[in-house]
Amino acid sequence: xxxxxxxxxxxRWHDLRNIQTFNGLHDAxxxxxxxxxxxxxxxxxxxxxFELYDSTALLRRYPLDTDEWLRLLEAAPDLKWHPx
Length: 84
Hints:
Layout: H1 2-9, H2 13-18, E1 28-35, E2 41-48, E3 57-64, H3 66-75
Antiparallel strand pairs: 1-2, 2-3
């Protein structure tokens, strides 16, 4: 979990892309990129608890400017983006 948080904080897109560890018996840490229409956005880290009755929590939020978005897209050109 600490590795994912550090990679998020430092905008290490290749590292974030390669972290694929999951254990269903433990809490999960997720990273989401949300893009705004002005080509800026945010990277969000959430904690998804193992315990059924606990709620998902927002841990951290990092702003992404246009240049950082371009670096993210270069590191992960095949990711699927879902508009909402």
